[in-house]
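Sequence only, no structure available. Ideas?
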Amino acid sequence: MATSLAQVSFFRPRIDGPELRIEDAVVSKLTDIFERTDWPLWVGGSVPIGAGFPDIVSVWYDPQVVTLGDFHTADGHILAYLRSVRRATLATIATRLQFPTQQLEDRIRQLEASAAVDRSTRNAFAIATAWREILPEVVTVEAKVSDWQAALQQAIRNRIFAHRSFVALPDNVAERVMSGRGFALHGVGILAVSDDGKVSVHRPARQNRPSVWNYYFHLAALAATDINSRSS
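Reply:
I predicted one. Tokens follow.
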């Protein structure tokens, strides 16, 4: 089943032009390019992640993510910290993250209610097992007409929160750069888009483990908020 533009949540105004047509072609072929049916799919365009706005972000998510509908900025930091340690007490989390204790207690209580965080008998907290991989796969795509070097740099940056990162280029450009050392070195994939809108994988992306968990959980929150708003 093709992905329609109506199913995509865009976070910035879209500007007509050749790069927009590349984005639209990729969006329409997402489910063909990335054949996954084990998890539901959410797609965002120009998604605000840190200081960047990846052109296309495809998120296969655990349905439990929708409990993050009332997300606070601090929650991403808390989940990211607990994702990197086995468990921690409230005092340790407050010290590490430099959060006021009352604010932290309020957010921990909300995360417990969302089943994102578990409390142990020693009054320490751990991220719930399901939430360690609440987004089983995140795939980003940067679309460019000719400036593939810029697309590559953006795609490399996206790997800090994505499992796979691609650039999408016109097929003649994709053919010319597919053997470029930077793509192989950083594991960035290449999607080739023809004039008639066909999309093919010229170079597969190397599977990656996200490293900036704050961005990862921020993305989970954005997806959850949007999914909830669409279903209400």
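Residues 213-231 form the longest helix (19 residues).
Hope that gets you unstuck.
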